[in-house]
Amino acid sequence: MKKKITVWAAQVRAPFLLLAIFLVLIGGALAHEYGRFSFLLFFLCLAGTVLAHASVNLFNELSDFRTNIDSLTRRTPFSGGSGNLQAGLTSELGVRIAAWGTLVLAGIIGVYLAWRSGWVLLGFILVGGVTTVFYTSRLAKIALGELFAGVCLGSMVVVGTFIAMTGELNTTVLLASVPPGILTFLLLFLNEFPDLQADSSGGRRHLLIVLGKSVSARVYTASLCVCYGFIVWGVISGVFPVSMLITLLTLPLAFKAAVTTLRNHDDFEKMIAAQGANVGLVLGIDFLMAIAYFIH
Q1: Which of 76, 103, 154, 173 has the fewest beta carbons under 10 Å from its own?
Q2: Mind listing the pLDDT tens digit for each residue in 189-202?
Q3: Taking a C-beta distance cutoff of 8 angstroms, is the pair 282, 183 a contact?
Q4: Which helix (H) or strand (E) holds 248?
């Protein structure tokens, strides 16, 4: 049983589900800011989002296996998939059932939340569901996967959680969802670097393949600057609380990730360090954003 749990934890890419948790935490912190936090709705949002993110990962694993990307990729702790299907530790049918099962469960939770909090939330759920199913099979082939992931699996999670708890939407919340959206985009974008050749051979045409590594390294760095700049602008303009400046504690990680990517984007081994720094800054900023609102 313990081995089976370990195998399936790897299959759903469990460590990356922290992103889903922190995104919901930001939405919950924003609801708390408005005096509308609910533990019940928070945990329902958490369950639904984690299930949806797990579903994305499972569909991605299926795609990698079917397109033979699994056998071509060089795995890192942050990219390349679990390899469980290729190793025979799980079956294609089992992963397919798990992918659709987690998506259906997430959808059921989402419909319940929409019934409680307002049907505008249903639109978010439908867009998120479409992104989940077609992220790898369609969107990653037309250079839109990263963008849709940033918006639908990043920003919309924050906004959706807030709507689920308050039944409302405002400009402040929309603006607060921008950094998490950029960060979700960056998490996926940088993790594509080691897989470029394998992904290209498997028929994908995501943003990294279209732009190439050199241009993509500059896009990554510019996006990081935009993210931090947006946070500072938000504080100066009074949109974000001053406590949001604690997110700047992640700047050393951002510097490491950006410099390493700019200088060594073709070096597989050195890019692992950039990936690690990127994961740290993405999760760090998301978590610290939530803390900033809770302590405000």
Answers
A1: 76
A2: 999 888 888 778 87
A3: yes
A4: none
Compute how many other C-beta atoms are within 10 angstroms of the C-beta atom of residue 137.
17
- Domain encompassing residue 149: 2-295
Structural contact between residues 13 and 82, judged by C-beta atoms closer than 8 angstroms = yes
Phi, psi (degrees; rounded to nearest 5) at 147: -65, -50
Total structural domains within the chain: 1
Closest C-alpha among 222, 207, 211 to residue 262: 222
pLDDT in tens, 4-21: 888 899 899 888 899 999
Cα dist from 139 to 14, 41, 143, 158, whole Å? 23, 31, 6, 22
Asked if residue 290 lies in contact with residue 19, where contact means CB atoms within 8 angstroms, the answer is no
| CB 17 within 8 Å of CB 53 | yes
Distance of CA 126 to the CA centre of its chain: 17
Q: What angle in degrees, to the nearest 10, is found between the helix axes of 156-166 and 178-191?
A: 140
